[in-house]
Amino acid sequence: MTKASTFTDPYYTYQIFHKSENFKKWNDENTISFKNYRRDWEKRPTEEDPGEFPLNLNIEITTKCNLACTFCYHRELTKEQKIHMEFDLFKKIIDEAKMYNLPAVNLNGLGEPITHPRLVDMIQYCKDSNIEDIMFHTNGTVMTEKLATKLIKAGLTQIIFSLDTTDKKIFEEMRVGANFEEVNGNVELFIKTRNAIGSKLPIVRTTMVLTDKTIKQAESFKKKWEKLSDSITAQDLVYSFEDEEEYEHSADKNTVTDSMKGLNWKSGEKSYYKIDRKKIIETEKNSKEFFRCAYLYQSMKIHPDGLIDPCTPRNAPTIGHVDKGIKNAWNNEKIKEMRKAHENGKWYTIDECKKCDHPYIAIFKKNNRTVKI
Fold first, then answer.
1. HSE (side-chain half, CA atoms, 13 Å) at 108
2. What are 126-161's pLDDT values in tens digits?
3. Which residues, including other chains, have CB under 8 Å from residue 146's CB and lie 6 or more apart?
4. Model confidence at 370, in pLDDT bands (50, 70, 90)?
5. Which of 177, 243, 323, 370 has most Cβ atoms within 10 angstroms of its Cβ?
6. Predicted structure pTM score
7. Which residue, among 166, 217, 231, 244, has the nearest Cα to 371 in the 3D structure?
8. Contact 205, 157 (CB under 8 A)
9. Is the peptide bond before 304 cis (omega within 30 degrees of 0)?
10. 240 backbone dihedrals φ, ψ, rounded to 5°
11. Contacts of 16 (CB under 8 A, 6+ apart)
12. In the chain, what percentage of residues exceed pLDDT 90?
């Protein structure tokens, strides 16, 4: 039997609009081990090689957040689900990761990392454990010169500010609870503080979620930040036809049905383009080149309670717990089953993958022209 031909995107659905000279220099002049890590980031999914341990851990240090963004399902979490990760658990994770020379961590998930009282200590612990790439995403609502200085000196290598748009009205409608001027000012304050210290790190990335509203500001977003930030990126927001139809015809608009939870949540935003999941799956069944998810060979997600998922989407299966070892989870039978399905061009036979946005976005983008700034 001839093996299926597959394609993969090591950088998922992100679009990169800008890279500064500082960013390029950081990549070009970094350590050999860092360059090997970036090489392996592309090599592993291409060669279907997961290695003995992930290259990155997405550690969800908190599920608490100070905003109620209209495009995020954090709003659906119960009070009991909004928790901080205990520092001892965090150290346990990093201690095992250190044994396998883990190169990168992203202290991110559904929550806002800056709400965690031990964030700076966590960054410092990663730095002391020889982790070379330490990053987190933030909504930018909280920032002072004192906090910025602590984050910089602790060893943070990348900070990603989620800003979305240059339009104040749209911004404040989407990021409920945030003030446009304050957030933009906080980003500028962080950059100014970093530069005053004389540090090239952390790399500052400004990013936007592309919706049917924000797509119109993509060009002005790039123009605004390209002289200040080191990198400008965008993430597509995608909802399929059947999800929108199911929601529109549901009897109770305040209740998200189980079948809807399997795909998307009750979002207040819409994508700037349409994706028909059913059509894509039918096309995939007769295709000569199939999608394969890079995430399964690069990274894993760890929740605040220590539970481990093979990837970050909402419906990802639980494959282990930190107490039983991260390496054990990396070689769990469920994740092996997922990898095998992707390698054989049958990703849609895995229920969790079928309900994930990423395959559909990647396939759509491969076959269609999308925004380029």
1. 19
2. 999 999 999 999 999 999 999 999 999 999 999 999
3. none
4. low
5. 243
6. 0.91
7. 217
8. no
9. no
10. -90, 165
11. 231, 232, 233
12. 70
